[in-house]
Amino acid sequence: MSNPVITHQPGAGSYGTNVQTGKWSTGLCSCCSDILVCALGFICPIALSCYTADKYGENVCLACVPGGMTAMRTHMRLTYGIQGTICNDALMTCCCGFLETCRMAREIRIRNGDV
Q1: Which residue of 15, 55, 93, 101 could cross-link 78, Cys pair, CB 3.0 to 4.6 Å?
Q2: What local confidence, expressed as pLDDT, does residue 8 receive?
Q3: Closest by CA position to 104, among listed 44, 63, 65
Q4: Gap between the Cα atoms of 106 and 108, Å rounded
Q5: For 53-76, what is each residue's pLDDT tens digit?
Q6: How far is the C-alpha of 26 from the C-alpha of 105, rounded, in Å?
Q7: What ranges in the chain are assigned the alpha helix state H?
Q8: What are the residue ranges spanned by the domains of the chain?
Q9: 29, 99 Cβ separation under 8 angstroms
Q10: Which pLDDT tens digit goes with each residue over 22-38?
Q11: What is the CB neighbour count within 10 angstroms for residue 7?
């Protein structure tokens, strides 16, 4: 009696997908692709952050917690199978906060079919 040879190890479970090969639907500076989001972010960035958290299904207070938007970006990236790292998530939300929040809001609106 021969034993079967194992050629593939089972993978661990994850959010959405194991392989993150996807990309964001829009670029970081694609604000003109959704004027509503761009205008809200320019006039009142905290309101856009709260709107984004709410649309993603999180508590609106997440936008006011230090690191909250970084955590949400990481979760969003993992859920949608978008390439990246936690370090990149932190850098993008800290250094490009307004633009990155706009991109996250656009991504949610696109994936929910709101645009």
Answers
A1: 15
A2: 64
A3: 63
A4: 5
A5: 999 999 999 999 999 999 999 999
A6: 11
A7: 35-43, 45-55, 68-80, 86-95, 97-112
A8: 32-112
A9: yes
A10: 899 999 998 888 999 99
A11: 5
